[in-house]
Amino acid sequence: MTGIPPYGAKPSRKDFLRGATLAALLPLLPRVSRAEAERIGVLEIAPGIFVHVGKYELVNRENRGDISNAVCIIGANAVAVIDTSGSYAAGKDLLEAIAEITSKPIHYVINTHMHPDHVMGNAAFKSQEVQFVGHHKLPAALYARKESYLTNARERVGDTAFAGTEIIPPTLLVKDTLDLDLGGRTLTLKARPTAHTDNDLTIFDSATGTFFLGDLLFSNHVPTLDGSIVGWLNLIPVLTQEKADRAVPGHGPKTMPWPDAIAPVERYLKVLASDVRKMIKDGKTIEEAVATAGQSERGKWALFDEHHPRNVTAAFTELEWE
Predict the structure, then answer these.
(1) How far is it, in rounded angstroms, from Cα 168 to Cα 126?
(2) Which terminal residue of the chain has fewer beta carbons within 10 Å of its beta carbon, N or C?
(3) Segment 23-75, tens digit of pLDDT
(4) Which structural domain range is residue 155 located in?
(5) At residue 1, does pLDDT exceed 50?
């Protein structure tokens, strides 16, 4: 059972408080059978936490941008949603699934970072009650790419799924740490330094010890680099100090053991950085690096050919100025 120490061990104050929080919260949470959860496209990973698992695909008309994980967290008084998928249509599907789970109001939509497969469903959640929450650098990042994001989304998902899609930046900004109270459970949001992007946000649910990392954590799907490879590698040891019972990746299965889950990401980034540094030292060109760097990771990740070349380019551009 989550949060229970080994037999014979003395419970810590943290264990005691978590157990008390869950005991008070459980009677107020919806009960959804596994079969029912699967029917509506979500799976419960801990009391009151439901995850929709995105597909390991590029955005296209068939998946309508549904390629990243999205989360619904239910408290005694309110609901928080983490990421909203890649189009209005996909976001609306998520909203309808949540409505089948709970009648509690959605008070927060939290975006873990700027990438369109995580934010383009935001418009489906617009209401007077909802606050959009994100890293303090997220508004500028979304504004800088607004037109290209919208154009690419329309082309990839098609007019029907795209209709209603818009860029909605956060109005509640996280500069360091922010706590959100859902009633009986508190989510702690942390703005992270530049890593996967320059606007990565993590969320921790103290009631169940669940850690939500957005795209700071990939599994099966190859990591994508749009920030700093040095920053990401420096951040991973910090992240692993978080005491969590489980982690939810931005792309991957519904839940993973923590901190073991991030080891493959660290390995990939270290291999990439090492190979690129050697090629720079040897006077190789960026084109030569794209063709050969990190190829030992081939076969270990989905969508490697689609995303890895850009990762090499980003790493080379950063590391050549070390």
Answers:
(1) 9
(2) N
(3) 899 998 998 888 888 899 999 999 999 999 999 999 999 999 999 999 999 99
(4) 13-258
(5) no
Sheet holding 210-218, edge to edge: 177-181, 186-191, 201-205, 210-218, 246-251
CA–CA separation, 125 vs 81, rounded Å?
9
Instruction: Count how many domains the chain has.
Output: 1
Give the length of the chain: 322
- Residues 6 or more apart whose CB falls under 8 angstroms from that of 10 comprise none
- Domain-embedded: residue 302: no
Is 206 inside any structural domain? yes
Residue 207: CATH number of its domain: 3.60.15.10
Note the pLDDT tens digit of each residue in 231-280: 999 999 999 999 999 999 999 999 999 999 999 999 999 999 999 999 99
Give the tokens for residue 115.
Answer: 């990438």
Q: What is the DSSP string of 111-143?
A: -SSS-HHHHTTGGGG-STT-EEEEETTHHHHHH
Kindly state the tokens that stand for 6: 């080994």
Is residue 62 a contact partner of residue 87, using CB atoms and an 8 Å limit? no
How far from chain centre, in Å, is Cα 225?
14
